[in-house]
Every structure is written in structure tokens, then in C-alpha cells.
Amino acid sequence: MTIIEKTAVEQRQALLSKEIKAVELLDLTYEQIEKRDEEIGAYNSLTKEYAYETAKKVDEKIEKGEELPLMAGIPLALKDNMNMIGSYTTASSKILENYVSPYDATVVVKLKENLVPIVGKTNLDEFAMGSSNENSAFKIVRNPINTKKVPGGSSGGSAASVAAFEATVSLGSDTGGSIRLPASFCGLTGFKPTYGRVSRYGLIAFASSLDQIGPFGRCVEDAAALYQVIAGHDMHDSTSLDMPAGDILSSLKQDIKGLKVGVITDLMQEGVEEDVKKNVLNSIEVLKKAGATVKEVKMPTLKYAIGIYYVLATAEASSNLARFDGVRYGHRTKGAENLLEMYTKTRAEGFGDEVKRRIMLGTYALSSGYYDAYYKKAQQMRRLVKNEFDRVFKEVDVLVSPTCPTTAFDLGSRNDDPLAMYLTDIGTICANLAGIPALSTPVGFDREGMPVGLQIMTDVLKEDVLLRTAYNVELGLK
Ligand code: GLN
Q1: Among 6, 21, 61, 79, which one carries the catalytic annotation?
Q2: CA-310 nearest atom, ligand 1
Q3: Which end of the chain is more exposed for a tag (fewer CB within 10 A), N or C?
């Protein structure tokens, strides 16, 4: 195994023991990008200058024997919907193709403070709308494990970059599953924290009441460490929780004796592939062996999650995306005769089909006469979903289910059927509706060699329990 294939924990060890310099680790990472990314399509742009500047600082620190911040020197890929000064931040949309960030997102500020070299900006479904990364306006992303398959979306580039060893860790955003789904399809650990744990300042908004930034890693500990770097209160984001993020790493490796695990039977039935089920059931046995008690739980309101999401997320998106009008930033049409024409032509040229579909759906749901029937009803239903989670978390500590009913599907196979594509997120969306933390961690492979992900969810603010559970699953499967 070469150094770029190792985990962040192992790479840090190698840096500290001077087996390798941070600059050399970066060289190898860029060589790999050179070799593989033309096929994979994980990156929209590279940020070499900043990455090398940072790696040099890390090497100087190590040389001087100074303490090394968490994740320092570990090559990281950033989803291209997060602002970083001087970098293109496109959200994989034509409307922002030439947009250069004038400021840093709070997560980027934190990465910079910790001397994490940001390698580049990763491809995504346009404005994070999609489940396969085939909605990027620039190019598709391929799954590095089998390039005929999708990597999952919308953070497909962030997942693929780590799976293809073109970065060691990455950041994605998750509105309805966009971290967990690609983590599941690419064989990584991907983690959506509690809503408000990580600042969204500088993240291009999709659906603000659901959006959350989170990490991808090759193992649970990598994801936990990266979370530790980015979590915490931020006065620039009014939804950011004003409380310390807690120390996740110190309790990560504790045992889970007596942990109460609920298996969501509603997500284990129809449409779940046999190989997915087999591997998920096997990981539940692992939990039992580690001392957890397991029982089945029913959550009947979850069947409404997709319907609720596609009213609320599109409503919020239609409002958030109103700012892209050709006036302040991004693309502006040429030769419009008047202001209204400028707006409409700019947006018609700049947005892709899926984004337009969402804006139309959301505008419809918010329009007078339909507002009560759709938006208000969906808000009420969202509360019922949250109530159901509150009820089950009185009985169990964590919930498990397949992250997705299937493994990664073939490129192009769901493009003509938006509904089939939307159903990919049947297991993940509920966590965003309830604001609870959730992760996906690999638990095996299907008969074609594609990874299977186990989703674990827990109650708000219990990231430590979530990650410890995942750590024990990973350990038990080794
Ligand atoms: N696939 C879902 C959607 O298209 C979720 C996307 C996300 O989490 N950003 O809306």
C-alpha cells in the first residue's frame, strides 16, 4: 500500500516520524490526480498554490519540533459549493462558472487554522441537487471502484477523490443524503452532523433548513478527526449552535456494551437488494457481539419523508436561488433588451434542467392558493417525522438501516426517471428532516464488488455515540 492510500491517522504518523514530508505527500497526491482524474472527473479545479504554501508550513513546524494541529498536512478535497478566497466556486453550475470567491467559508477558515492543505474543489450535482453526480454542468463523476457506475451524489467528487486516492479526506454537504449516499457507493465513511454543529457560512445554500457540512474519510477515525476540526459555534451563521463541539476523539474507541440499537424495519423491506440486506444484517451481528442489544423498530411516518422533502427542499431552493439573476455575480446574458429579459435569459441559460425543475416545483408549492396545501402541510408532516424520532430515541440509542436500498447503479440508468432517482434517498432524507446526526460506513460488498453502506443515526448532539458505534462496527468487521 502506498502512502496516499493510507488513512489520515497513518499519514499523520508518517509525517511526525519524518518518513515523508507534507510537500512530498502533496506531490504524490497531485501525481495521482494527474494519472486518474481525467477519467474520474472528481475535481472542477485545483488550488495548488495554497496547498503547497500550507504543506511547507507543516514541514517547517515538524522540523522545529512544534506541536502539529489535528489533520495538519493531510491532503483534503473541498466540495465546489464552499467558498475559499481566490478559488473558483461554481457549484458545478454554468451560472457560477467564472465566479471567484472573495471570502472564506468558516469551515475553510478552520481548515486553514489547522494547516490542512486544500488540494482542489470537487465536482458535484449542480447546486447539490442530485444523487448520482450526473447533474454537473461540466462533467460527470465516475465511481473509482467501477468506472461504469455512479459515485452517488451530490458530493460525488468529494467521495470519488478520496476513493481514487486523489485526496485523503474531503468535505461534502448533505441536504438529503449527499454525503452518506456517495460514501456508501464509494466505500467510505461519510458523516452528517447534527443541524447547526458545523457552520454553513460560505456554503452555497440549497435548502437552508436541511443543509449541513460534513466529512468523508477512509475510516471512522479520519471522519471523526475532520469533524473535530470543522465543528463549533460561528456567529456568522445564525443557525449555528452556541455550544462546544465536544471531544469526539477521546471516547471514540470505547466499547459499546449495553448500547441499545434499533433496526428500522420499514427501511429493510421492499426494494432492498439482497446483498445489501445480507451485509447490513451481518453488521448487526457485529454490533451484538460487541455487546449491544438489538431490537426492531417501526417508523411508519418515514414513508412520507421523500414527499415532504421534495416540497420543502424545492421551496427553499426556489427562494435561495433567486439571487442568481445576472446582477451581482455569475453569468449575465448578452444582448437583453430590458431588465426582465436580462433576468429570464440569464437564468434560462445559466441553470441546468434539474435545477429548473426544482425551482418550478418550489415556486409552485409556495404560490398563493397552494401554500397551505403543500408547504404548510409538509412542514406539519416534518414535525411528525421529528416526533417519531423523539419517540424511538426514548427506547433506543441508535438506529441502523441500509444507507441506500441498492449499491452504486450504472451511469445513465436513472437519468430519464427523476422519481427513481429521488427514491435513492429513501433512507437518508429523514435525518435531515429531523436535524439529527447520521453517517454511512462501509460494511461489505455486493456480488459485483461494489461497497455496501450501513447508515447509523442517533439523537441530536450525540455525535460521540454515533461515531463510537461506527468505530465498533468497523473494528468488528476487520
Ligand atoms: N439527492 C437529494 C436531492 O437531490 C439530496 C441532495 C443533497 O443532499 N444535497 O435533493
Answers
A1: 79
A2: 10
A3: C
Q: Is 178 a catalytic residue?
A: yes
β-pairing, 212-217 vs 169-174, is antiparallel
What is the reported pTM? 0.98
Cα gap 360→353, rounded to integer Å: 11
Which residue has the CA at smallest separation from atom 10 of ligand 1?
A: 129
Distance, CA 356 to ligand 1 centroid (Å)? 15
Q: Report the CATH superfamily, name and number, of domain 3-251.
A: Amidase signature (AS) domain (3.90.1300.10)
User: Which grid coordinates are listed for 280?
Assistant: 447490513
Q: What average pLDDT does range 241-250 have in this prediction?
A: 92
- Which residues lie across from 398 on neighbouring strands? 261, 458
Please state the rounded mean pLDDT for residues 205-225: 98
How many Cβ atoms sit within 10 Å of the Cβ of residue 356?
14
The predicted structure's pLDDT at residue 420: 86
220-235 confidence digits (pLDDT tens): 999 999 999 999 999 9
> pLDDT, tens digit, for every residue of 292-345?
999 999 999 999 999 999 999 999 999 999 999 999 989 999 989 999 999 999
Measure 212 CA to ligand 1 centroid, in angstroms. Answer: 11
Whether 199 is catalytic is no
Is the CB of residue 131 below 6 angstroms from any atom belonging to ligand 1?
Answer: yes
- Domain limits of the chain? 3-251
How far apart are alpha carbons 212 and 155 in whole angstroms? Answer: 12
Task: Output the residue whose Cα is nearest ligand 1's atom 4.
Answer: 130
Q: Which of 174, 151, 252 is nearest to 455 (CA)?
A: 174
Ligand 1 midpoint to CA 11 (Å)? 32
Residue from 92, 178, 184, 318 carrying the catalytic annotation: 178
Reported confidence tier of residue 172, pLDDT bands at 50, 70, 90: very high
Half-sphere exposure (CA, 13 Å, Cβ side) for 442? 23
Out of 124, 175, 306, 309, mutate this one to test ligand 1's pocket (max ligand atoms within 8 Å of CB): namely 175
Report which of 209, 205, 181 is spatially closest to residue 196, judged by C-alpha positions.
209
| Residue 39: all three cell numbers together | 477519467
